[in-house]
């Protein structure tokens, strides 16, 4: 038996695009833009220059060479000559190469298992280091801490500080142990087929991260919700994923997005929502912010983004004390 058709088309009730974008396309587009946002954040922030001349319109003159160059590229592209030259050309490169090799799990390197998920240069090095290399790393880091002690005006050789450099070096490696973890190890064997399609929420996951601008902690809570689409993940794994991404140098916005994107990629769910509430020591200690003030960031995808009712259900559930 067919369901009776609603009088109002669904796009008008949900406020989504009237262009009849399939949810699959919508979800993929959301993941793509999230991926791009995380990439941008990795490169650091660019200040908006309000004094610069507005760049709304193409330059009236003097840019003929650029224009011709662009046309040349265009021609080459369409006659399919010198594709390699094209890929080396920043101006012609699309921000999201869809030609990237796809694993059965993912389109993005969010869970590029080999790269340990959003790696930095030393990530694999750290994970695969020999005992000797670990010792070397620790000694180098401890040396740097000793330098800090000297620079702030301390005597690194006084008794109370004698073991501090090594102790701090060990602590720092622990605070950043997320660099040694990858999603494959965390989720392996913990994603299941199951016909559950109700909102699943794990709230109040404690997170301890370090602000990448000051290397000072920010701590708080993460709330994760998702609506499965025949794939569910072991609940404890949500906390492990939060832990992995937070035990790296972060900005809260990116941390929030990375967790959302990782879940979205792995579970291909109907919707994902991640909310992070935290207090940044770099703000509290420097007096920019009153103690107790929190920063909240959120990232919603799929149905949790497009359907107000679902979103509200999530928000009211995480706010319930
Ligand atoms: Zn900071």
Automatic annotation (TrEMBL):
GO terms for cellular component: cytoplasm. Residues 1-66, 96-129 are annotated as: Disordered. Keywords: Allosteric enzyme, Folate biosynthesis, GTP-binding, Hydrolase, Nucleotide-binding. Residues 143-318 form the GTP cyclohydrolase I domain. SUPFAM superfamilies: Tetrahydrobiopterin biosynthesis enzymes-like (SSF55620). It comes from the Eukaryota. Residues 23-33 have a biased composition (Basic and acidic residues). Its EC number is 3.5.4.16. InterPro entries: GTP-CH-I_C/QueF (IPR043133), GTP-CH-I_N (IPR043134), GTP_CycHdrlase_I (IPR001474), GTP_CycHdrlase_I_CS (IPR018234), GTP_CycHdrlase_I_dom (IPR020602). Residues 13-22, 96-109 have a biased composition (Polar residues). One of its GO terms (molecular function) is GTP cyclohydrolase I activity. GO terms for biological process: folic acid biosynthetic process; tetrahydrobiopterin biosynthetic process; tetrahydrofolate biosynthetic process. Pathway: Cofactor biosynthesis; 7,8-dihydroneopterin triphosphate biosynthesis; 7,8-dihydroneopterin triphosphate from GTP: step 1/1. The keyword Hydrolase applies. Belongs to the GTP cyclohydrolase I family. HAMAP family: FolE. GTP cyclohydrolase 1 is the first enzyme in the biosynthetic pathway leading to folic acid. PANTHER family: GTP CYCLOHYDROLASE 1, GTP CYCLOHYDROLASE I. This is GTP cyclohydrolase 1.
